[in-house]
Automatic annotation (TrEMBL):
SUPFAM superfamilies: alpha/beta-Hydrolases
Protein name: Lipase member H
Species in which this protein is naturally found: Callorhinus ursinus (Northern fur seal)
Membrane-topology annotation of the record: Peripheral membrane protein
One Gene Ontology cellular component annotation held by this UniProt entry: plasma membrane
GO biological process entries: lipid catabolic process; phosphatidic acid biosynthetic process
Length: 451
């Protein structure tokens, strides 16, 4: 409610001047990309005083920039068609929504617009030099490096790293959104983003098998869906241009989700995506001391904890839904079976509440092994978080199309929420699942002894 009140207040404070045209991001044509463009960096400032209409600023004219507040620089990447980033306006307004700060859009489209990627990447250090000149003037006016935050997208992530190196890693924070991989993979730290480039560096890797950088580059490196194919993105070239850029851009949209109230994406520090999927990393490695790290704007909540590690670095994994706001809700499904013989297969679990809401999780990334009287704990991921579950259904499958049908005899099934451990855990006893047949039942609260 407070945020809504603030948003309405902002709308009332906006001053419109029909005689003045608002500066906008440089828009170029595909023709410009073919013939190439010379580098020209334009800085556009947004604040809560002018959150919809930018001011063009430079090292001699700081405009509305208040050097006593945080200043966040947004640095885009390669622009092969000359168009403006479709996410830029949402990112600017989202940042101003969560904090009263200066937001500076670094428009280097004249330089980034070219069909030859090498030409754009060769200009990244030059852009960094321009930004250092501007930040130097901010410091003269009383700004602090602690309050400088840089968000770099693709090539922009490495630009942010170059700026950070010029200040010996004293910038407050750098966020790299799928840092560019081509021409940077395997490069030494001085030629790319590095954990030492700021006091805190967080990175989201969403396209490590194509346009993004695979290896860790920050104090905490987030790998949504393992950093590979993102849900909802085209899987084949028939998806057109989205096939090439959707996974790469997903890092930006995941960051945007952290600026909204309806979705806080939790990640789980882990050695590998496989270990995460197998439920081995859900306590964040630090029992009850720290909450798990949050993706995006609030990732720096883990800054002080990571400082205690040697080295101060970790990788974190999580899954997402295919649509905004991308949140996934994690539950454990604990199953104890009493089959005489070992059974291998997958489980599909469906939850529903009395209002008719239904959410489903297919736990089929690899076969689970069910042995007599052994508990198997499966990590289930749901698109919805149902507060009060009325019914549960289970389907067991070996994945075999032909051959005998098997039964899975369940001594006890238990469902427990990771996000809300205070909720009553739900149990069911003595079930027999016929392969590929849905079994629906009403759960009961587990005895407190089992919790």
């Amino acid at each position: 409610m407070l945020r809504l009140y603030f948003f309405i207040s902002l709308m009332c404070l906006v001053k419109s001047d029909t005689d003045e045209t608002c500066p906008s991001f440089t828009r170029l044509s595909f023709h410009s990309a073919v013939v190439g463009t010379g580098l020209n960096v334009k800085l556009m400032l947004y604040t809560r005083r002018n959150w919809t209409c930018a001011q063009v600023i430079n090292s001699t004219v700081l405009g509305n920039l208040n050097v006593t507040k945080k200043t966040t620089f947004i640095v885009h990447g390669f622009r092969p068609t000359g168009s403006a980033p479709v996410w830029m306006e949402d990112l600017v307004q989202g940042l101003l929504y969560v904090e009263d700060m200066n937001v500076v859009v670094v428009d280097w489209n004249r330089g980034a617009t070219t069909v030859i990627y090498n030409h754009a990447s060769s200009k990244t250090k030059k852009v960094a030099i321009v930004l250092k000149g501007f930040i130097d003037q901010m410091l003269v006016q009383g700004a602090s490096l602690d309050d400088i935050y840089m968000i770099g997208v693709s090539l922009g992530a490495h630009i942010a790293g170059f700026v950070g190196k010029m200040y010996n890693g004293q910038l407050g924070r750098i966020t790299g959104l799928d840092p560019a991989g081509p021409l940077f993979n395997g490069r030494p730290p001085e030629d790319r983003l590095d954990p030492g480039d700021a006091q805190f560096v967080d990175v989201i890797h969403s396209d490590i098998d194509a346009l993004g950088y695979k290896e860790p580059l920050g104090n905490i490196d987030f790998y949504p869906n393992g950093g590979l194919d993102q849900p909802g993105c085209p899987k084949t070239i028939l998806g057109g241009l989205r096939y090439f850029k959707c996974d790469h851009q997903r890092s930006v949209y995941l960051y945007l989700s952290s600026l909204r109230e309806n979705c806080s994406i939790t990640a789980y520090p882990c050695d590998s995506y496989r270990d995460y999927r197998n439920g081995k990393c859900v306590n964040c490695g630090i029992p009850q001391k720290e909450s798990c790290p949050l993706l995006g704007y609030y990732a720096d909540n883990w800054k002080e904890y990571l400082k205690q590690k040697d080295p101060p670095m970790t990788k974190a994994f999580f899954d997402t839904a295919k649509e905004e706001p991308y949140c996934i809700y994690h539950y454990f499904v604990d199953i104890i079976t009493w089959n005489k013989n070992i059974r291998r297969g997958s489980i599909t679990i469906k939850l529903s509440d009395r209002a008719g809401n239904i959410t489903e999780s297919r736990i089929n990334h690899e076969p689970a092994v069910f042995q007599k009287y052994h508990q198997v704990s499966l990590l289930a991921r749901f698109n919805q978080d149902l507060d009060k579950v009325a019914t549960i259904s289970l389907v067991f499958s070996t994945g075999s199309v032909i051959g005998p049908k098997y039964k899975l005899r369940i001594l006890r099934m238990k469902l427990r929420s990771l996000a809300h451990p205070e909720r009553p855990q739900l149990c069911r006893y003595d079930l027999v699942l016929m392969e590929n047949i849905e079994t629906v039942f009403q759960p009961i609260p587990c005895p407190k002894l089992l919790m």
